[in-house]
Amino acid sequence: MLLIGWLVLFFMVCYYGQKVSEESMNIAGSVYKSKWYEFDIDAKLRKNIILVIARAQKPLTLKAKYMGTISLVRFVRVLRRAYSFFTLLLAVTDN
């Protein structure tokens, strides 16, 4: 039960890390689709909007110190490595 709980917790962290990355990539499109360039705004606000669009081109990621970027890809890699380790342990204990 404890292992399943840890697995669900790790999946949730990785899932929401993935969602943060995906939503951060949607920011640039949303700001640009708002047609900000048609409104009469001052140069400072226009510059800030352009900076937001430029920054949103690179996804925002959550990182853990020794794990790297937290995403669903990381979740699958951890599961693969755990399964490999588990099968190795089973092979060693069978001999």
- What composes the largest sheet? 2 strands, antiparallel
Low-confidence stretches: none
Mean pLDDT reading: 88
**Range of strand content:** under 5%
- Could you give the distance between the termini? 29 Å
Give helix and strand order, one letter per element, not per position. Answer: HHEEH
The structural domain count equals 1
Rg estimate, integer Å = 21 Å
Structural class: mainly alpha
InterPro entries: 7tm6_olfct_rcpt
GO cellular component, one term: plasma membrane
Subcellular location: Cell membrane
Keywords: Cell membrane, Membrane, Olfaction, Receptor, Sensory transduction, Signal, Transducer, Transmembrane, Transmembrane helix
Structure in a nutshell:
Residues 1-17 form the signal peptide. With 95 residues, the protein is mainly alpha-helical.
Describe the structure.
With 95 residues, the protein is mainly α. It has one domain (2-94). Helix content is 72%, strand content 4%. It has helices at 2-33, 43-55, 72-94, and strands at 63-64, 68-69. A two-stranded antiparallel ribbon has the order 1-2. A hairpin with a 3-residue loop joins strand 1 (63-64) and strand 2. It is rod-shaped. The two termini are 29 Å apart. The model has no long low-confidence stretch (mean pLDDT 88).
